[in-house]
Amino acid sequence: SNNNPYTSFGATLARDEEQNLWSTPHDVTHTEADDDRVLYNMIVVRNQLDKDSEEWQKLNYDIYTLRQARKEVRSRWKHILEDLGFQKEADSLLSVTKLSIISDSQNMSKARDILLKLSEETNIFPTSWELSERYLFVVDRLIALDAADEFFKMASAVYPKRPGGDRADEGPRP
């Protein structure tokens, strides 16, 4: 209202967030990682098919499933960050763009180790999840904040791996 260009800003962000969970699609700094390309290619193929076809329905389901998995992983990370006291910073810590850099090249090895350990020893990622480079940047930020070990401990407590090596994909335990 009143010719204020920012009145619908929240609605636009919410819409963009639904379309792309990692950054706004119109952002020129948007990072296109492998998982982004997979999703994009699925959408392109689906849009070329007849909406009544079985192939279209299958691809549409796969796209929805992938988006939900990405959304759930981001939600899990955000939940832990907020529990660690990063309520105001959680979204910015999870934001990865082309301009994102590793704070210290010496942290790269430690960040990879922690990310792999999170994948193997917790349920923060779904079973079929391929490790995403964007979470390497997030772990690097946590190392710089001296919070990576606490994040791992919290992830282990909130999203523990089930006995026998199976992951529980239903979310956190009480």
UniProtKB/TrEMBL annotation:
Stretches assigned to coiled coil: none
Which cellular component terms (GO) are annotated to the entry?
melanosome
Which biological process terms from the Gene Ontology are attached to this UniProt entry? melanocyte differentiation; melanosome transport
Question: Where on the tree of life does the source sit, at the highest rank?
Answer: Eukaryota
What's the name of the protein?
MREG protein
Species this chain originates from:
Irena cyanogastra
* Source organism phylogeny: Eukaryota, Metazoa, Chordata, Craniata, Vertebrata
